[in-house]
Design goal:
Elements: H1 2-19, E1 21-27, H2 44-55, E2 58-64, H3 67-76, E3 81-85, E4 101-110, E5 128-131, H4 138-146, E6 153-156, H5 161-170, E7 176-180, H6 181-190, E8 197-212, H7 219-236, H8 238-245
Parallel strand pairs: 1-2, 1-3, 5-6, 5-7
Antiparallel strand pairs: 3-8, 4-7, 4-8
Length: 258
């Protein structure tokens, strides 16, 4: 009798899973926020989404693709959302009230350089590496647009744009690039080149989110679920458990220390 109950319980769980709606979220790899799909460490924002949305009866599918493709496809409604977006990245998307992290956009150079970013004029005589369709700050975005047709700004595309910029920096094909501080240090450490680069000035601190497609009618609902879920995960300690797995701490408590 006990065995029968267990079998029925398992069948019931499978039935619920089979009827759960799948929410597909997409982005290029941006560790530790989102890394490799279908692994034990897909990135902490992916794990947060899985924890919150699975409790609400959804299944999560994470697909890695170039950022510009991810934004365009989600905007059209092909996918439900994009991971690691700032509000300037996709102003027409639906954002949760509570952010899923904070991005510190920082300039990087080779270790031997003494260049430091102080203001936009600092970029004169520099070869700047950026990623297609990323938004860094109003001032930097305007500078990129103004120089997009010459060699002073070099744009990379694809699934691993940061790795491309790191390789270009080491090879002296660019003199400086801008990207998220945590992401850059994480990847440079994994590539065993952390001691060959240096931070050269913070540009901006922006909240990052899973932003939901403006083409999906349930996007507001999903954003509310995720926002409320962030509050609950922070209160019950689950958020810190997920962050600790990636050697991070809660940005709301130590905003400049992660």
């Amino acid at each position: 009798m006990k065995t029968t109950r267990i079998v029925l319980l398992i069948l019931s769980l499978f039935a619920k899973l089979s009827h759960a709606e799948t929410i597909t979220i997409v982005a290029d790899a941006w560790p530790p926020y989102n890394i490799t799909p279908n692994t034990s460490s897909p990135g902490y924002i992916v794990e947060v989404a899985e924890e919150v949305l699975s409790n609400a009866g959804y299944q999560i599918e994470y697909i890695k693709m170039p950022w510009n493709r991810a934004v365009k496809a989600a905007r059209s409604g092909k996918f439900h959302g994009i991971i690691g977006a700032t509000k300037p990245d996709a102003p027409d998307f639906i954002f949760p009230d509570n952010e899923q992290g904070v991005s510190e956009y920082t300039f990087f150079t080779i270790k031997e350089s003494d260049w430091v970013y102080r203001n936009i004029t600092s970029l004169e005589n520099q070869l700047l590496g950026v990623v297609s369709d990323y938004s860094y700050s109003n001032e930097i975005d305007t500078y990129i647009q103004a120089h997009s047709d010459n060699i002073k700004v070099q744009v990379v595309y694809g699934k691993n744009p940061l790795e491309q910029n790191l390789n270009k920096l080491i090879a002296n094909r660019i003199s400086v690039f801008i990207d998220d501080r945590r992401v850059t240090n994480y990847l440079a450490t994994r590539l065993n080149i952390r001691n060959r680069i240096r931070e050269a000035g913070l540009v901006s601190r922006l909240n990052i989110y899973i932003a939901f497609s403006p083409a999906h009618e349930d996007s507001n609902k999903l954003a509310d679920i995720l926002s409320d879920g962030m509050t609950e995960l922070r209160a019950n300690g689950k958020l810190q458990q997920i962050l600790a797995k990636y050697q991070l701490s809660d940005w709301s408590k130590t905003p400049s220390q992660n």
